Structure prediction request, 55 residues.
Amino acid sequence: MAEEADDLGNDPDKKNYIYDHSKSFFRNLACMIRDIKAKDKKEELKQKMAKRQNK
Prediction:
């Protein structure tokens, strides 16, 4: 359990990935990376929209 909490770094928003034991390690890794990138892109879009609204 302790390892699972630390496997995605220090950002608490990104620690909610659930490891799927029916898939291979590399498939899980690819899914985890895709999820993280999607979250980062979503946050970046929110920041851009906030800048546009503030102008």
Notes: The radius of gyration is 15 Å. Residues 1-6 have pLDDT under 50 and may be disordered. The chain is about 65% helix and 0% strand. The CA atoms of residues 37 and 43 lie 10 Å apart.
